[in-house]
Amino acid sequence: MSGGIRFDSVSVAYGKQVVLDSLDLTVEQGEVMALLGPSGSGKTTALRAVAGFVRPASGRVFIGDRDVTVLPPHRRGIGMVVQQYALFPHMRVEDNVAFGLKAQKAARVEIPGRVADALEMTGMASYAKRYPRELSGGQQQRVAIARALAIRPGVLLLDEPLSALDAQLRSGMLAELARLHRELPDVSILYVTHDQVEALTLADRIAVMDKARLQDCGTPQELYRRPRNEFTASFVGNANLLPVSVGVGSVSLGGAEVKVDTGEVAAGVSATLCVRPHLVGLGPGPNALTGTVTEVQWRGATHRLYVDVDGQPVKADLRELRTPPSLGEEVTVHFAPEDAVLLAAGVTDG
Ligand SMILES: Nc1ncnc2c1ncn2[C@@H]1O[C@H](COP(=O)(O)OP(=O)(O)OP(=O)(O)O)[C@@H](O)[C@H]1O
Ligand SMILES: [Mg+2]
């Protein structure tokens, strides 16, 4: 392996505060791994440990087979894009892009060609002579990416690269990043975001962080369909998280008996049932629940209903209804047994 990333029980502390707690995670060569988690969960810290801007208190960081834990940043072969681009305002685009190459002491004759390649790849070739202040936010973003790519890194670290862009520009850049990755299939990418859509769209796998710890890791589909705990269920996609008591092959939810796969969760305990709102149907069906409509939201393509079932709010996202129910109306909602996941209580890490 020449370009994967491996965290081997990496911990980082500031003073007494542990902000990254024994992270074990491998990004395979050519893989896009999203680090997803709320503010302060340790995402940027993990990235900085790979880049060499923070020294772990314990554990090792590997890039490929190389232990880089104590290597200075410029010797790690890494391209990095931070949240605010950090372009040099007094340098033209081409000089910004050449900066990393010069720092690396690349051969002088090679630099113009490499700069041109990187600008070409990010669609910025015709802007080489401009200054950052003469560019839009999205264009500055491309230059920052070109600068990271110019050194032909084995590892690309992206820290919330799209967070300063508006929603429309963001979805365009997301498609661009996906294209870039197809053009550079050997580059391993660690992509920090707190936006689940970015993570679901771009990543081969998602590592979910909370409170300095890795909570879950898997493909987007795995995490979405089979979350391991309530944190993942609510952070990756929308979820109904309903308190239930577990029986054998079924659970009771308020007064209703509901069929689900109880898996390894023991009968007699309290647990949480996770059902995605878009998998809840309106009207009779399997696992029917009756309740009162407390809110109806029209969202264009869909209606979101909130239904109170024995004191539990159940959210249902339905294709736009011709005649939506009224507030206070009694309705039946249902879901297929295979669309529900039972989460044992108290499993929040591991
Ligand atoms: N240089 C520092 N000195 C002290 N504490 C720090 C330092 N850098 C980060 N921290 C703390 O470490 C914790 C994790 O920070 P980090 O930047 O990794 O979070 P994050 O997940 O990237 O959050 P965000 O989504 O807001 O960027 C936070 O509690 C933060 O206050
Ligand atoms: Mg951060």
From TrEMBL:
Residues 5-236 form the ABC transporter domain. Keywords: ATP-binding, Nucleotide-binding, Transport. It is an enzyme of class 7 (translocase). Its EC number is 7.6.2.9. It comes from the Bacteria. Coiled coil: none annotated. One of its GO terms (molecular function) is ATP binding. Pfam families: ABC_tran (PF00005), TOBE_2 (PF08402). One of its GO terms (cellular component) is ATP-binding cassette (ABC) transporter complex. This is ABC-type quaternary amine transporter. The lineage of its organism: Bacteria, Bacillati, Actinomycetota, Actinomycetes, Kitasatosporales.
